[in-house]
Amino acid sequence: MVINSICFAQKSNDSISMQKELSEVMINATKASKKTPVAFTDISKNEIEKANLGQDLPYLISLTPSVVTSSDAGAGIGYTNFRIRGTDPTRINVTINGIPLNDSESQGVWWVNMPDFSSSLESIQIQRGVGTSTNGAGAFGGSINLTTNKISQKPYFLTENTLGSFETLKNNIKFGTGLINNNFSFEGRLSKITSEGYIDRASSDLRSLYLQGAYFGASTSINAIMFHGHEKTYQAWNGVPLNFLDTNRTYNSYTYENEIDNYQQTHYQLHFNKQLDEKTSYNVAAHYTHGEGYYEQEKLNESLSDYGLNDIIFSFDTISSSDLIRRKWLNNDFGGLTYSLKHKMDKVDLILGGATNHYSGQHYGNIIWMKYASNSQFDHQYYWNKANKIDHNIYAKADYKFTDKTNLYFDLQRRNIEYTFTGPDEYNSMLDQEVNLSFFNPKFGLFHNLNNEESVYVSFAVANKEPNRNDYVESTPNSRPKHETLYDTEIGYKKVRDNINFIINFYQMMYENQLVLTGKINDVGAYTRTNIKDSYRRGLELMGSLKLNESLNWSANLTLSENKINEYTEYVDNWDNWSQEEINYKNTDLAFSPNIVWSSLISYKLNKNINLEFISKYVGEQFIDNTSSKDRILNDYLVNHLRFKYEWDSKYFKQAKITLQINNLLDNEYVNNAWVYRFISDGYDPRADDPYVNTDSERGYNMAGYFPQATRNYLLGITLGL
Predict the structure, then answer these.
(1) CB 273 within 8 A of CB 223
(2) Using an 8 Å Cβ cutoff, are 508 and 6 in contact?
(3) In 371-451, where do the E strands start and end?
(4) Which of 263, 173, 188, 273 has its CA nearest to residue 225?
(5) Cβ-contact 626, 601 below 8 angstroms
(6) Among 95, 91, 94, 105, which Cα is nearest to 359's?
(7) Following CA atoms 69, 74, 78, 84 in sequence, which dihedral angle do they give, to the nearest 10 degrees?
(8) DSSP, residue by residue, 622-637
(9) What's the confidence (pLDDT) of residue 528?
(10) How does DSSP classify residue 240?
(11) Which neighbouring-strand residues pair with 401?
């Protein structure tokens, strides 16, 4: 958000207005404004609240253009994820008030660690493509800017409760003091969400806390924020075998009673905002995050040598393998400083900003039980390593008013990365290694008003992104992949009137050295991603809303796209001779990139108390690998939801609302995510021994797991506020 002029008069109402503006200074540097020539969508607090019944944030943004969501447990609670234009979550930059959220090593975001965080959000901005310069991981297809709650001028107390299918239950309380002595404000939230999940045993037990305190002076604000999340979820990561989808689509292969993921994370943010004069303001923010947890697994007939254990003697027999239970731990710390300076001149709005962030991650695994161990309290640590990553970036953004109708946009970023980790060298010895990378990410654009209702824009941006942790620690310096580069062109047209809004956006995202899974085994025996020289995403996004009358509104969007790899080689394991066979492809489809995605929302207001919404989402066919094979494809699907909201006037409550949401109204059975491993075995048919294996029409077999989503289900929420 961009701060306009702020009056420094001493009237109390002006002071309150100024305080509200100062609370927004901290995120103005990373968000797009209405004249920024990039493709973006804003979601307001009111829109968030309508859909916020306990499902994770990916489901709250699922109706925005080019977004496809999925849930391991099938019902939107627990492990959830989303893609933008087919781009996976590790390539989508996420910030909270300008503070990076992506894990520095894996570069992903796990929303399960932040249960009910949507209840503390003021707005969400989704930028598609490279977007504007931001802090943290490279935006390589999209970015999400989350802004936490503005201050409330008046005290409040609110509770939101949801009851739903699969024993889903959400309870929270929210409170705020309002402005105290016109200078201080405190707010908080306490939440608990539980669900058994649609998939068998895919339960979730989620708890979270949010606290915020703010001080406002004549030209200064200080905002301190703390939020904590603790998740305990039963794993459903294997998916469902293809042959089970028609007969047992809630199947979960994990049966060990404590096959859980148990992780907690606490975030601290301190923002200092200063308005120097009506033209100049700056923000400095310090942040720190600590996370710690594990996932526990039962493993059968494991080789002891894989865990650094020698053969053991049990009942006079030598044992070289055993059933065991292991925990894989992550203990990580992330902290740093972000800053921005905004200065307004006659024709130029200038923003200078950047960040310095440091990450430290300890990765280790313990065997906590082994079948043949003599000690019931067996505890053996079989690996431990530590990684450090320092990320510096600095950027300069200028919005130049070239004429009364035309603005020119410049955005230049320099990013430097220092990453140290333990990994194999040329001789497969595990040694401490270091990678240093430096990226220059320029962006240019033009925004032009055709008239009072119509405008056009064009932009070109370059983004560079480093490989992730697995790419480094599962390769040697000889096989280590290169960084990726993206060249993104966006061309758009907007028409805004009182009763109709329409946006059309064309994008072309050209990749150089994009990292994809090819099946190739590298020099340490790992299936790491491989650089492919040329690939692209090209598409057309149509967005619009229409106010038919005072009661009836319709909004919709449509994405038509082509997502291709020009040429690459697939490597398929041959189990008969322990080799790999090569298959060359040209003009093949990128995985998980449907060519058509659309959504629609029809809203009808029956009266001042009752509102109905009919929601539709369509996702076209998408391949689960990069071969364009019909053996490895997810069928298209259309899902409809119905939302009913009733608000009433109460002499006891300032706010009283009931929301009923029926998901998958027509009870469709559909799948929106999967994994696959392809291999050849002419001498042995593994299908009888593994339900996940299917024959391949070309040759050999596919081992694949699918993630079916819930059939018709319900969420009923009630909100009461004082």
Answers:
(1) yes
(2) no
(3) 380-401, 406-424, 430-449
(4) 188
(5) no
(6) 105
(7) -10
(8) EESSTT--TTSEEPPE
(9) 85
(10) B
(11) 407
* pLDDT one-digit tens code per residue, 601-638: 999 999 999 999 999 999 999 999 999 999 999 999 99
pLDDT tens-digit profile of 172-192?
A: 999 999 999 989 999 999 999
Spell 384-404 as b/e; 16+ CB within 10 A means b: eeebbbbbbbbbbbebeeeee
**Which among 170, 240, 241 has a CA at the least distance from the CA of 202?**
240
Mean pLDDT of the chain: 92
3-state secondary structure of 242: helix
φ/ψ of 475, rounded to 5, equals -150, 165
Place of tokens 């992104």: 465
3-state DSSP assignment of residue 88 = coil
- The sign of the CA dihedral 134, 137, 139, 144 is negative
pLDDT of amino acid 316: 57
- Spell out where 240-373 has E strands: 260-277, 280-303, 312-314, 317-319, 321-344, 348-370
- For residue 1, is pLDDT > 70? no
Residue spans of the domains in the chain: they are 189-721
Pick the CATH number of 189-721 from 2.40.170.20, 2.40.10.220, 3.40.630.30, 3.40.50.300: 2.40.170.20
pTM of the complete model beyond 0.90: yes
Decide if 679 contacts 41 (C-beta within 8 A): no
Angle at 85 between CA 443 and CA 711, to 5 degrees: 150
Report the C-alpha gap between 599 and 595 in whole angstroms: 14
Q: Judge contact between 27 and 159, C-beta under 8 A.
A: no
